[in-house]
Amino acid sequence: KKAIIDPSLFKYKVQPIKKELYETVIVKASQLSRRKHLFSRDRLKLFLKQHCEPHDGVIKMKATSIAKYNLAEQNFSYFFPDDPPTFIFSPASRRRGRPPKRASASLVSN
């Protein structure tokens, strides 16, 4: 069983987009931040509208988006290079706090 690693111990190598102006640096996790509201319901809806379409009840990427971003040439490990997560199994539970419904004696006919 693998030990759980504290995310605050990670260090990140940050490479600039404009390499001629800036140099690569290594930073601690506590030095990183993200803008609030970067991911929102409206942005998700826009992403789905621009890059996805329904096919037989399944949402799939549009062919134009796949070609534009060369997604056909990539595999899952390109985007997620670490080991896949392991989830603890928990059995499905019945409706919480309420016993299952039973037929009332007054409704049953002979």
Automatic annotation (TrEMBL):
Signal peptide: none annotated. One of its GO terms (molecular function) is DNA binding. It comes from the Eukaryota. GO terms for biological process: chromatin remodeling; positive regulation of DNA replication; regulation of DNA-templated transcription; regulation of heterochromatin formation. Residues 88-110 are annotated as: Disordered. GO terms for cellular component: CHRAC; nuclear chromosome. InterPro entries: BAZ1A (IPR047171). This is BAZ1A protein. It comes from Lophotis ruficrista. The lineage of its organism: Eukaryota, Metazoa, Chordata, Craniata, Vertebrata.
